[in-house]
Specification:
Strand content: under 5%
Number of strands: 0
Distance between the termini: 39 Å
Largest sheet: none
Structural class: mainly alpha
Order of helices and strands: HHHHHHHHHHHHHH
Radius of gyration: 21 Å
Shape: globular
Number of helices: 14
Length: 374
């Protein structure tokens, strides 16, 4: 049986900083016309910010729930998970409503292509007739598909916990086999009324990355928050990331000679192809085994990023709204430098203000709770 009772180190700011960086890159990547998305990690490797986000979701889930089973009991933890899933679901429904209303209202004043929204949702009568599909997550509009994935992954956490405590190798093996099966037959997926291919983020594949994140938290917890530093493994993963960089970098866009070695096609994101999986695991291992990364996360830039990461649900949700509004502005008014400034600088600043407000609110709540307990 795998020991799941690690020592409890102080807060690891690398997790928050990496998640904050992923949130900012997701904000930029979801606007195709945004010039800054030429500089995000999807241009320097096979994986992108979504993989980082899901891997850290597994890691954070163990810290938030797995370590508390001994104190609160499994049922107590399950109730907390259920409450969290309900909160995420409400955020998802809020985002759907805001997105639909924003697009419908925008079309009253400016012309938009019909494919700006799925054709099935392009008219009000479709919404009224098919509202149940949205409520049951049977219809997932574009750019509104990662929170439903998070609900599924968080919902299976208690089962994963029990399997890990019973036979850790069985939990990891079953998770791997399910991921492998989906990569062999990608049609094995959840249904999506808006897409015949199913959910864009196939939960049956992405659960493996979530599970890896859980094991990462358990392993790091037994080494004071760090992964064991193995030189040959670091060199091997570093060389793989170098290969990934050469294959993924947009050489033609920058007017540079094509330096790709194998001309590997873009690995499938929907079912988390092996090249993407190895890419994100390599990045995470190198960060969590690096003393330099730990020191960086405790510095000014690292703490700036960590502030976003500590409030991922709220920051991600507001950034999704800003993404939509940015796409609307670019589609109707062009891609001028003024709009680039508004979308990027003002958008990221408003997200920062939200994170600061939530951080102060959390600190105040903890202080009040401590005062009441004393």
């Amino acid at each position: 049986m795998l020991s799941t009772q690690p020592t409890k180190p102080g807060r690891d700011h690398r997790i928050d900083a990496l998640r904050g960086l992923a949130l900012i890159m997701m904000y930029v990547d979801h606007i195709p016309e945004d010039l800054l998305n030429r500089f995000t990690m999807r241009n320097i490797g096979f994986a992108d910010a979504a993989e980082i986000f899901v891997l850290l979701a597994g890691y954070a889930s163990w810290l938030a729930y797995g370590r508390k089973v001994s104190k609160d009991g499994l049922w107590g933890v399950c109730k907390k998970i259920l409450h969290r899933c309900w909160k995420i679901y409400l955020f998802q429904m809020g985002l759907v409503l805001i997105s639909l209303l924003s697009i419908y209202q925008w079309r009253r004043f400016w012309v938009l292509p019909v494919d700006f929204l799925e054709p099935e949702l392009a008219h009000g009568y479709s919404i009224a007739r098919e509202i149940w599909r949205l409520l049951l997550l049977d219809a997932l509009p574009s750019n509104l598909n990662i929170l439903p994935l998070y609900i599924i992954l968080l919902g299976i956490f208690p089962l994963l916990y029990l399997l890990i405590r019973w036979r850790w190798w069985l939990a990891l093996g079953l998770s791997f086999l399910l991921w492998l099966g989906v990569n062999i037959d990608p049609w094995f997926n959840f249904p999506n009324w808006l897409d015949p291919d199913g959910w864009f983020f196939n939960p049956l594949a992405w659960q493996f990355l979530f599970t890896i994140g859980i094991y990462g938290a358990i392993t790091a917890g037994k080494h004071h928050g760090d992964f064991p530093s193995i030189p040959w493994l670091k060199w091997g993963l570093g060389l793989y990331l170098l290969f990934s960089f050469f294959e993924a970098f947009p050489w033609e866009y920058w007017g540079l000679p094509d330096l790709r070695l194998l001309h590997v096609s873009v690995p499938a994101k929907a079912y988390l192809s092996p090249l993407r999986l190895l890419d994100v695991v390599a990045i995470f291992y190198l960060v969590q085994s690096s003393g330099w990364a730990k020191r960086f996360s405790e510095g000014k830039i690292g703490q700036f990023l960590a502030l976003y990461g500590r409030h991922s649900l709220e920051v991600f949700s507001l950034s999704t709204v800003f993404d939509l509004w940015g796409r609307l502005m670019f589609a109707s008014w062009g891609e001028s430098w003024t709009l680039q400034f508004v979308v990027n600088c003002i958008g990221v600043s408003l997200l920062y203000i939200l994170a600061v407000y939530l951080d102060k609110k959390r600190t105040k709540a903890k202080a009040m709770q401590k005062a009441n307990n004393s």
